[in-house]
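Slide 14.
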Amino acid sequence: MRFAFRRSALFAAASLIALGIAAPSLAQEAPQTLPNDAAPAQVEAEPSTAPEASPPADADSQDPEIIIADAPATPETPPIPATWAPIPTDAEGRSAYGYYLAGRNALTSGESEAGADYLARVEALTPEQPRVREQAFTASLLAGDLDVAARIAPEGEGVSPVIVQAGRLVAAVQTFVHGDARRANAMLKAAPIGEPHARAGLYVQPWIAAAAGDWDRALAQPPTDLDPISVLVARANRARLLELRRRHDEADAEWRDLTSHALASRLFRLPYGEFLERRGKRDEALVQYEAAVTAGSTDRATMAARARVLAKGRPPAAPNYRQGASLALKTAADQIIAQRALEFGVVYLRLALNLDPTDENRFLIGQTLQQAELEPAARAALAQVGPQDVELYAAARVQSALSYEKDGQAEQALAELRRAVEARPNEASIAYLLAGQLVQMKRFDEALTVLNGPLLMTADQGFEVHFLRGAAYEALGRKPEAEAELWAALQQQPNNPTVLNYLGYLWVDTGARVEQGAEMIARAFAADPSDGNIQDSLGWSQYRRGQFDAAVETLEQAVAKEPANAEINDHLGDAYWAVGRQREAGFQWNRVLTLEVEAERKAEVEAKLRDKLGQDPTDDTGAGVAD
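Slide 15: predicted structure.
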């Protein structure tokens, strides 16, 4: 088989790095493992149908036991009764059961906001049920309904510290969000945030203290018993606050020391450079930016800062209290995301967004939700990224397109990529993604229009472009052009199993260079023996050279790896026929007709069934198969 158009192979370059967009860069060099009880809170899900758009009808007839969480109740948790008497209902007569089922259905379908709303209604009707309260709290966190989460945050004996400390962090930050810095500071002062959210609490509390006028607390030195990176991050927050307090010499000394650390200096060159710009020290700021670039930093913020200094542009303003708190929470999110606690990362980023409602924060939320494979929620967050920053907007559209493609929604993916191209018409990486999506959708002429355009038809075009163009030409039957492009791709990556297989199969299948093609396929299979498509090519090369027994064995193994692939099943049928196993050949050809098959192959298989076996392909009984 030539190739299955899989995004994982065709679009390996489709990363945000190619677009110049990156997540925060303050992740730990060596992330520490979370404690066993600090795993991110998961929203429980179960198979179900999609929820109704409006509040659900009464579900009294449903089994009330379904409201019980999967985990058994602790002795302190009052059990949910088998029968409610009376059934908890709201003013409209809708029951807690109905809301609960609708909430679980919504969460399963990816509609996190609706699910959180329904579960919050359940909690209001059944406040004595802590398991329901925990589920409603968790759903509200992930959906971003943080005021509800703060209001219903569970506490008390039997509630996990993961939940309790998250609730306390959310309550304090949301109090600050709503303008009461003194009360928020008092909350954190009375009981600092504990594990597993202690780091987020440590980073955000100085900003809240400063907003409350508690400068002794805001500028206190961080604890020394933290991991080294967290200490440095806390000191960076202190340097920013020293600047706001107009203690510039102390701030400068702090930044100088932070940028002197060999391993961590890259984390602090950008903020130090911005500080120097505000102090009128452009030359010194440029030194910091150049050092960051020399060390390998290519993030767009650093590059933009370097360009700004060279153009003698206006320096960026220092972050205010809310922006600083938001930045602190983003840093905590970045570190905990590096530990794969993605749900915690989403929560911190949602808090950061409430403090500083920027498109960058919306983008980071969407990106993290994608990493957590919460695709509908990720797309909802990415959809909120506006067009003011064209690079960020285009990156959000690309991420959304990849999410749609992952969920099998090709037209929506294509529409998002077209929006990205419209925003950044001169960006080659986005043009390549658009061409790849068109190939994926078998719109080959449109793909070639993009691939042969000035952005991608360049003297230094890469392997991926040559390969994709060759695949499009081959699909259209333009064999000489396909061969030329695939040969060019092979010269750039002579050991790439994908192009070895593709070009080798083309030569074997057309009879142009059977022996040379077979040798290339054998090399591809040796490099990637787990790929069923390459193994199919190997079997087909054996078949075309008359090695029918070997072809049967090879193709049987390929079908075992790719049982739903019509082309491989067809090839196995041909091999069975060649060795005289006619019934098995008929079985394979009939199986092809039950799979997703192109019209041309379908007609060929039907002809084989009629001409070789005397079988009517439209007869489901199997009658007429020759012995």
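Speaker note: The longest helix spans residues 321-338.
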